[in-house]
Design goal:
With about 260 residues, this protein is α+β, with helices and mostly antiparallel strands. It has six helices and ten strands. It has two domains: about 90 residues, Alpha-Beta Plaits; about 110 residues, Crispr-associated protein, domain 2 (Alpha-Beta Plaits), CATH 3.30.70. The strands form three sheets. Strands 2-3-1-4 form a four-stranded antiparallel sheet. Strand 8 and strand 9 form a beta hairpin. The longest helix has 16 residues. The chain starts with a strand and ends in a 15-residue tail after the last helix.
């Protein structure tokens, strides 16, 4: 695999054009541009790469970083040949070949799409799709609909608790178990818009998470790192960055990217 770090110039002067900032506000356009770096990516594989916009540009920072993990070597010159103004520096690319052992403790960072599949809405409405519905590869679709994860504040539920429980359940099938250290760094929405009618608007419930996990099944966890975790991977979710705890000893991890584990 390969890891790329793209520093995006979002500008710090509101009186001058800031194309990088406008570009990042539409996750659909971000995905389109990044896809151009992988022209030989096989058809029918919408998640041939994973990416994450790794800092919050709302603080008027002149820089934003996009991390990209891919199976193929990227061609960033091709992707930004007519949009060099978006980059604040030349992309950094390195090979990535991690390995994980059962019981190993890792720090992690991930942006997840907080969603789950459900057959009924909160008001009891039937959300099931027609039985003849198929996906883009001709496979039968699950007879349910993806809805945002929610919590009942009036019953004492908190976002941190509900999201931790949701993420821990993901780990049961992804080869890891959560440790006591779990932090909800940011909760919000990621938006985008496909060309065409207003019906093509995209809106994803987003949570940026950091903490510590323990590898329960090395081969399964490796597949999770390779393929990403959760839904909407093509729109900036699911890239699981990890680092050995010993590498992070004594270093603050909030408000900074967690490095990927080295081989």
């Amino acid at each position: 695999m390969y890891l790329s770090s793209l520093m995006i110039n979002t500008g710090d002067n509101p009186d001058r054009p800031r194309p990088g900032r406008l570009w990042l506000r539409n996750v659909y356009h971000v995905h389109q541009r990044l896809s151009m770096a992988f022209p030989s990516r096989s058809q029918g594989s919408p998640c041939g790469f994973l990416f994450r916009i790794d800092n919050n540009i709302e603080d008027n920072s002149p820089r934003a970083i996009i991390l990209v993990q891919s199976q193929l070597a990227p061609d960033w010159d091709r992707a930004f040949y007519n949009a060099g103004m978006l980059l604040a520096a030349a992309p950094a690319v390195r090979e990535y070949a991690p390995s994980f052992a059962d019981g190993e403790e890792l720090r992690f960072r991930i942006r997840v799409n907080l969603s789950k599949k459900s057959k009924t809405a909160s008001d009891g409405t039937d959300l099931r799709k027609p039985h003849d519905a198929v996906d883009r590869c001709g496979r039968q679709r699950d007879q349910s609909k993806r809805v945002a994860v929610t919590w009942k504040g009036d019953e004492g539920e908190t976002p941190d608790g509900a999201i931790r429980q949701w993420f821990a359940s993901k780990g049961e099938h992804a080869g890891f178990a959560l440790d006591t250290d779990f932090n909800l760094i940011h909760l919000g929405w990621v938006t985008g818009h496909k060309p065409g009618t207003p019906e093509n608007k995209l809106r994803f419930r987003s949570a940026l998470l950091e903490g510590t996990l323990r590898v329960a099944d090395g081969p399964v966890f490796m597949q999770t790192v390779e393929r990403g975790l959760g839904s909407a991977k093509g729109f900036g979710f699911g890239l699981l960055s990890v680092a050995h705890v010993r590498e992070q000893a004594g270093r603050p991890h909030h408000n900074r990217g967690v490095a990927h584990a080295d081989a």
